[in-house]
Design a protein that fits this description.
This protein has 299 residues and is an alpha/beta fold. It has eleven helices and twelve strands. The longest helix has 18 residues. The termini are far apart.
């Protein structure tokens, strides 16, 4: 396979970092784009070219994208922004303008399995699909992953402090859950292949659905606490916890909005899992290989 040059935005996140490693392992040149941080420095140390900068800066993004064969694009939410959706809109505008100015020809865009749902999407910014589809000459594939298993890592400190897994989510609500490493693997495959079918959509729904109650039991087995409980919090208590964790009122409110719609199952169309949308990592495997080591690292 010929070496190509890929740009990965949001490179220090769960998906971005794993994607950078996967593309480097395939022998490609990778430019990792993110705000300056030790995590970006770590990607430079394993062979990526680091491009520290502001994802709202059109000129910066244009320069980075201009020499790329293809790019992975995402709009990371700023959980401390006073208006999270407005902040993401600025990032989306900048990224789309830069793609057009740089004459980028291929891209993989991170979207969500909720992209077809008009309401209750919380901090998920889902209007970028149409914006990218409208750019002449750009062949873009959209990834629509389900709820990330990695979101459960937020419970590490809760288990240490309170002895249980907790959120405002209904304990019995079935959720499609996918490991971010499987999302990164799909992105790597699409980037390293031929140009995607225009406006292609790829759902990534994990191996099966899990409830939060079942997730707590699986995590409990992995960390040696088989009786680990799941506690459903009130929306008010969940919002207070998010604020204490450093989120802005905007972010905390958006998360509650999304969970409320999911709990009430309003205007929710369940995606049918197919062979193409089924990903390999089970929650049991994630709990053993990712959650348990993270839990052991926290005192």
């Amino acid at each position: 396979m010929a070496q190509q040059h890929f740009v990965v935005t949001g490179a220090t996140g769960h998906i971005g970092a794993q994607l950078v490693h996967a593309l480097l392992a395939q022998g490609h040149h990778v430019t990792a784009v993110a705000r300056p941080s030790p995590r970006l420095d770590a990607l430079r140390q394993v062979g990526a070219a680091a491009a520290p900068g502001n994802l709202h800066d059109v000129a910066f993004l244009t320069q980075v994208l201009r020499m790329a064969d293809a790019a992975f694009q995402m709009i990371p939410p700023n959980g401390t922004a006073p208006d999270v959706l407005a902040d993401m809109q600025q990032g989306a505008d900048a990224l789309a303008e830069a793609v057009q100015a740089a004459s980028l020809r291929r891209a993989v865009n991170l979207s969500s399995a909720r992209a077809d749902q008009p309401v209750g999407n919380g901090p998920l910014f889902l209007r970028q699909e149409g914006r990218l589809n409208a750019i002449d000459g750009l062949a873009v594939a959209h990834l629509r992953p389900a709820y990330f298993m990695d979101n459960l890592l937020a419970n590490v400190s809760l288990i240490k402090r309170l002895g249980g897994v907790a959120s405002a989510m209904r304990p019995d609500l079935p959720l499609a859950m996918v490991a971010t490493k499987d999302v990164a693997a799909k992105a790597a495959g699409l980037l390293g292949g031929s140009a995607p079918e225009p406006h292609a959509v790829h759902y990534l729904l994990g191996p099966r659905d899990y409830s939060m109650q079942e997730a707590a039991a699986i995590i409990g087995q992995a960390i040696g606490r088989p009786e680990l409980p799941y506690v459903q919090l009130s929306y008010e208590r969940a919002e207070q916890g998010a604020l204490r964790a450093g989120m802005s009122a905007s972010m905390a409110g958006l998360l509650n909005e999304m969970i409320r719609v999911m709990n009430e199952e309003k205007k929710v169309v369940r995606n049918v899992r197919t062979a193409a949308s089924t990903t390999p990592t089970t929650l049991e495997a994630f709990a053993q290989t990712v959650f348990a080591p993270a839990f052991q690292c926290v005192q």
